[in-house]
UniProtKB/TrEMBL annotation:
Domain Thioredoxin: 58-213
Organism name: Nocardia transvalensis
Protein name as annotated: Thiol-disulfide isomerase/thioredoxin
Upper classification of the organism: Bacteria, Bacillati, Actinomycetota, Actinomycetes, Mycobacteriales
BP-aspect Gene Ontology terms: cytochrome complex assembly
Chief location category: other
Keywords on record: Cytochrome c-type biogenesis, Disulfide bond, Isomerase, Redox-active center, Signal-anchor, Transmembrane
GO molecular function terms noted in the UniProt entry: isomerase activity; oxidoreductase activity
Record-linked InterPro entries: Redoxin, Thioredoxin-like_sf, Thioredoxin_CS, Thioredoxin_domain, Thioredoxin_ResA/DsbE_sf
UniProt KW Lipid biosynthesis keyword: no
Cellular-component GO terms for this entry: cell envelope
């Protein structure tokens, strides 16, 4: 039998090493606990939530202007961004819904563990800042049903929208990581894109006060 040239042996060894490394670092589909907190990594998709699943989650209605409020034109990067409301599946123009109000827009995904830690604190802050700051979550993964189930399990009932295509993230120039919080001024301009999880209600309140000038 002819022996394999030394150069070929080194090439084969290098190829085996590369394949082994790729297998070692390839994401496993063993549940959200092991998925990295990067947007686009956990692209799943799937059937949307049923009416019963939405009802069980008991999510708050998405922000909207009441008929007796004067109209405020949407402006800024969120103007014209169409998303679906997690509470009822109906379409929402996010820029129009938030126009004229300071807002905290939180980008998250069902598989993101820092998001799961942060969301209850955001709910507490929303209760503290009721009427002063609008808090809305943006689920940034295609699997809407898992978003609704995750919020139900976390007992978080914040108003939220589904943005599996990443339109909100692109519009505000957020990096491809989660969670991200976007502080929006009443005129629709972006005050701050915060690329870290909040660690407490006081942390949220202090950051919003510093960047939007709204104390709560």
């Amino acid at each position: 039998m002819r022996s394999i040239p030394a150069a070929w042996r080194w090439t084969l060894a290098a190829l085996i090493a590369v394949v082994a490394l790729a297998v070692a670092i390839w994401p496993r589909d063993s549940g959200h606990d092991n998925l990295p907190t990067y947007y686009g990594t956990a692209v799943r998709g799937g059937p949307g939530p049923s009416d019963g699943q939405r009802a069980a989650a008991a999510l708050s209605a998405c922000p909207a202007r009441s008929p007796d409020e004067p109209p405020v034109p949407a402006s800024g990067p969120l103007a014209g961004i169409k998303v679906g409301c997690l509470a009822d599946g109906l379409p929402v123009d996010l820029g129009e819904a938030l126009a004229g109000r300071p807002a905290l827009v939180n980008l998250w995904a069902y598989w993101c563990e820092p998001c799961a830690t942060e969301l209850p604190a955001l709910q507490q802050y929303a209760a503290r800042a009721a009427g002063a700051v609008t808090v809305v979550t943006v689920h940034s993964d295609p699997d809407e049903a898992k978003a609704v189930a995750r919020l139900r399990d976390l007992d978080v009932h914040l108003p939220g929208v589904q943005d599996g295509g990443g339109g909100v993230r692109t519009a505000v120039g957020a990096p491809p990581v989660l969670p991200v919080s976007v502080l929006v001024r009443p005129d629709g301009s972006i005050a701050k894109v915060i690329v870290r999880p909040f660690d407490s209600v006081d942390d949220i309140a202090a950051t919003v006060s510093a960047e939007l000038g709204v104390a709560a």
